[in-house]
Structure formats: structure tokens, C-alpha cells
Amino acid sequence: MSKTKYIRKPWSISTTVRNPERLLDFLRVLKKLEGREFNTENQELYQILLIKERLYKPTDICAKYQKYYENSEYEIPLEVAKEIFKNQTYKDPAMRGRQSVNPLNKLGFAVARKGEGPIKITKLGNLFLEGNYDIGYIFLKSLLKLQFPNPWSIDFKETNGFNITPFISVLHLIYKLDQLSKAKGISKEEFSLFVPTLINFNKIDDYVKKILEYRKCKNKEEKDKFINDYLKEFYGTNKLEEKKINNLYDYGDNIIRYFALTKYLQITSDPLGNHFHISLNPSRLTEIEQIIRLYDGSANKFRSVKEYLDWMTDIDAPKLPWEEPDNLKKVVQNLKLYIENYVNDHKITLDSSQKNLLTFDITSMSKHDLEEHLKNLRNLNISIISNEYKRELKYNKEKLNQIISILGDKRGIKKIKPIELEKIVSEALMIIDDEISIKPNFLTDDYGQPIFHAPGNKADIECYYDSFNAICEVTLDATQKQWIRETQPVMRHLREFEKRYPEKEAICIFIAPKIKEDTYSAFFNSVRYGYDGKTQNIVPIDIKQFIIILRKVINILEDGKQFTNKDLFFLLDALVKKAYTSNGFSEWEKNIHLYLISI
Fold this sequence. Notes:
This protein is an alpha+beta fold. It is 53% helix and 8% strand. The protein folds into 4 domains: 20-131, no CATH class; 159-294, Arc Repressor Mutant, subunit A (Orthogonal Bundle); 324-393; 397-598, Restriction Endonuclease (3-Layer(aba) Sandwich). It has helices at 23-31, 40-52, 67-70, 78-86, 93-106, 123-130, 135-143, 166-180, 188-194, 204-215, 220-235, 242-260, 285-294, 305-312, 325-345, 352-359, 367-393, 397-407, 410-415, 418-432, 482-500, 517-528, 543-558, 565-577, 585-598; strands at residues 110-111, 120-121, 186-187, 265-268, 277-280, 437-440, 443-444, 450-452, 461-464, 469-474, 506-512, 538-542. Helix 13 (285-294) runs antiparallel to helix 15 (325-345) and helix 22 (517-528) packs across helix 25 (585-598). The chain is globular.
């Protein structure tokens, strides 16, 4: 009798929710069902609610319901969402709800499974929903526990060779690579090929060797052969399907985005968010070393699903090494040393309060005071790095030309994610004039790189100047739904911003690939006739028009002059006032364009 040959497969975090930013909305919808049994009926209802909230779009939408997707001013009624779901004729309709909730279960944000009691949002999940959180802490706590195999999942079994806590094992992998190679970190390609296929912590050393061998390949032909041979061995096949290779790149991209949220990995990429390079965060190196000394990357043993769920949903688990005061002091000292080295290398002058923070005596501090001091040092580190980056950007014509090239690439702009467009626009605003502060509201890593979108109650970018204040709202939406999705939030954000800073005039710059007529109409009414009883200053411009402004700034800089915040205010104020001399929004649209091409 022949032995049953198990099938090897790579691991992944979520093929349902590839972008971790979407988890928050999926969790928000599940919260509505909290306390109910996750039986077949409620599994279907969860998927129906995702359709209702436009978080999931089925492939087969009959003509009768197309209007709900062609024009988002129509709210999808629950009964309509039910009909749309029913019309998909799924063999197992409830399975769709189980698939959608799977990443929330897997990461410990919720417990929603038939036979496991009522739907429950965990403490970690509720912390995520509250919005006032350290996203790095939430995902670190989650990913330190995510393991394969586990009693909750049948996807990655011990009999198939799985014995791994992926995040911890990746820390081990990169740390060991760094000890053996001058090139620190790991490329996106290496990550995609070797991380999803690392299914057992005992193989970490072998994978270090494989990556170093792969780096010795001299050309593309040698690399392709190496990949082909390696993956044939992994999958246990003589014929390798192209799909199996492509899937690894999808998994790798997905894993990187989740792991980046912990802030323990430093992710760098090109301006379009491609060509990631992944390295250990040097400002958190002591914590990383403490983690890999305490945990080897193996999966824990659990006697039951309940025991595993208790572990996953315990916000205090796992034990962090720096919960011990002596280890915490080492973390503080490492970060302090990192900041001091950065300051010295970049010849940065600190003010007295910053110096005091770095020279504070921590020997007699309590654990609580040490934790607060560490938070203050983290904030100082981010502030110093961000300010240095802004200094390098100031009036940087080369960077401005690069931004113009990116924004002017019609094909490339379609590949940019919303958070990446926010970053590009915020950099452009930092370059062009003498602002006091440009503050993007997306959540960042320790180096100011965006890792999660701005909270829903804030503008994308806040701008502070001597002569006025502004917000900048950025969208990639160029559909007919633009005015529904964008105009009300923009006007609300501007009004809240006006109230916060009543001492200065406030203007909103709205940027999109194309401004739709209904969007012009809504903003025209807000400027001319008011929003909630008071007029507003809003300037809607498309990306081409934004480029016109940036090119004008370059011309001014090349003439040896500066473009000041007063110049920017004069420009924006002139565009707002065009609404008062225009007969309707269509004429305002034309006058904005005519003014911009004339400057």
C-alpha cells in the first residue's frame, strides 16, 4: 500500500481581503451582527450587508439593479442587496460570508464561526474600531500569534509540513540574512518567492542559504532557472504552472502590506509604491532581537479550538519581552542611541526640550514612566526624520519634476493607490513654498511612510501657512459617483477645520484625475451660497491643472525667485473668486482653467 503524498502549498494571510485597509470596514459591518449565532442564515446576511455597504461587488449584476452601481447616490436597500446576492446562484451561498469573515477570525479581531457561540468582536477588534489606536501595536499583537497549523483552520495542516509563526520566522530570516550579507534586508521578489514557501521554522537556515544562492545568479536566465528548479522542488512537481509562480507574487505583496503595519519592518519603494525593499527597522532592532531570542518561530500546540481562541483573543498575549523593566530600558537606550546617531550624521540642531528628552536619566524610572518615555522618544524620532525629509524637499526642483512625471503618466496614475497619491501630493505641497507645516493625516511608520489611510473624520492633508490655512482632499475617483462620495465629506471636513482655526482664512484644494460636473456644481453652491449657513472657499482642480501650478513654481524657482505662501494664497483666492463672477458652475469650471493656463 503506497503512502499518501501530501500536497505542499504556500501560506497567505488573506486572499479575500488583500488590502488590510479594507479590514476595518469588514469589521465595522460584522459589529452590526455581534451577539448573533454565525449560522448559515447570518453567514449569508453578513455577505448581504457587505453588498449593501458596497464593500463587495458580485460579478453578476442584473440590468434591474445596475443603477445602484452606476450611480451611488442610490443607497442599496437591504432587500435589493438580498436579491443581488440570491441572483448569484452560489452552490453554497453561506460560504461567501465565511470567506469574508475569515481574515477577521484569523487575525484575532473577531470570533464568528458556526458552533462557537455568538459573534464576538474581541478587545483587539474593538480597539481597531475605536480609531484612537496605535495601529502598530494592534497588528504586532495579532501577527505575533498568527500561526500554522492551528485548530481554527484546516488550510495549513501539520501533516502538510506546516509548523510556523510567520511574522516571527520572517524576523529570524531577515536577521540571519543581515549577518551573512552586506546587502541588508530582502527584495520584494525574494520576499515573494521565499517567504510564502517558508512553511516550517526549522527550515529558516536552509532558506537563508537559498536566498544567498539566488543572489549569486548573474543574469535573468540563471535566476529564472533557479526559481523554476526551486519551486518544482517545493511543489513536488515536474511541470510548474505559471499560475503557481504568479500566485506567490500576489501572496508576497499581500503579506508585506500586513507585516508593514507592525512598524517592525521598514518598507521602502519607488514613488508608485512598487519595487518594495523590506528590512528590519533599525530604530526597533533591540525589540526585534528580544523577540527572536524569546520565540523561535514555531507554532504552539493547542488542545482545542477554544484554547486557541482564548489565546488569539487575549489582548495581553503574547508576552512581549520588553514588558520586563530591564528589557524595556534596553529598548529605550537603543532608540536614544539611534536618534543621537541620526542627529549627528545629519548635523541636526536640537532645541532644549529635545536635548532634555535624550539626556533624561532613566535608571530609576518606573515601568509606566519608561513606557511613556519610550512613546515620547518615538514621537521625537518621527519628528526629527520628518523634518529632515521636509528640509530635503524644500524647493527641490528635481523632486518636483519627478512628481510631475508621475502625475502626468496616464497609465501609471491608474496603478497608484489612494494613499500613495496623498503622499505624492503632500510632498509637492512641501516643496513649493514656505509653509509652517504640511501634515498628511494618513498613519505612518517610524520613517513617515504611509501604512494606513487617514481616519474618516479628518481631511487627507492639513496645511498651515503664515497668511492662511488649508486642507487638501485627494481622490482617484473620476466616475459619476465622485460628487456623492467626495463633496459632502470635503465640505464637512473644511467646516470642522474652519472651526478649529477661526483666526485664519481656510481654503480647501480638491484634486482628482478629472472633476465631474456634479462635483463642480456642489462646490459652486458651497462657495456662492454656503454650506450649513456659511460660504466656503473650495478650489476644485484636476491633476493636469495641478501639474500646471507645479510647472509654474519650477519656472519661478529657475528664475532664482521663491514661491511663497502669499503667492499660493493669491492664486487659490483668485480661483475661489472666479465663482462669484461666473454664471453657474460650468462657467466657473472654464474660468478656473483659463486662469491657470494664463499664469
